[in-house]
Amino acid sequence: MIVGYARTSTAEQKAGLAAQEAELRALGCERVFIECASSVKQRETLEQAIDFVRKDDVFVVTKLDRLARSVVHLWEIVERLKAKGVAIRIEGSGIDTTNPNGALMLSVLGSVAQWEREMMLERQRIGIAAAKDAGRYKGRVPTARRQSAEIMRLKDEGNTVPQIMAALGVSRASVYRVIQEQTADIT
After folding, report:
1. CB count, 10 Å around CB of 106?
2. Average pLDDT over residues 21-31
3. Where are the beta strands (DSSP E) in 101-168?
4. What is the pLDDT of residue 39?
């Protein structure tokens, strides 16, 4: 059986997900597992797909970056599939692990993909540092701190911490942190 796996990082990438699914179906995938999840988070659908495949199946993805986040992660997946007797095809790269050349190419391209990601993250860190130096980057304001005035108003009106939590959708720890910070400012 040919089994496909499609993934995008965000829900806004629906067109990319639809294109992957269409390509996988055109390649003869009888079953396609579809997931919208960041590559760095736990991917339940990927786990389901790996559990689903059986000996002599072929596991297909359109591009290498849809499958793994690093060379180590890639080889974890490859070894799990290999142990089950499942071959891997990465269509966009022409990789097919049913032969030694395909396995070699998978190693090389996996290394290049990891290098590319690390370079992108490095450029991102440099950009953030430059924006911070220029005073243009402040980061996200914590949700509870934006509601400090409202938390204190509700507390002053006699609301309990659970009532404040429910009214504003913030955690118990956040409510106590704001109260502690606000009362520390007074003294």
Report:
1. 21
2. 95
3. none
4. 64
Render 62-73 in DSSP notation, one character per residue.
SSGGGT-SSHHH
Joined together, the tokens standing for residue 163 give 């009532």
For Cα atoms 153, 158, 162, give the angle at the middle one, nearest 5 degrees.
90
CB 113 within 8 A of CB 64: yes
Taking only the tens place, the pLDDT of each residue in 56-90 is 999 999 988 888 877 778 888 988 998 999 999 99
Give the span between the Cα atoms of 18 and 34, in whole angstroms. 9
User: Contact 57/86 with Cβ under 8 angstroms?
Assistant: yes
Residues forming the active site? 9
- The pTM for the full model equals 0.58
- Rounded Cα distance between 63 and 92, Å, is 5
| First and final C-alpha spacing in the chain | 71
pLDDT of res. 57 = 96
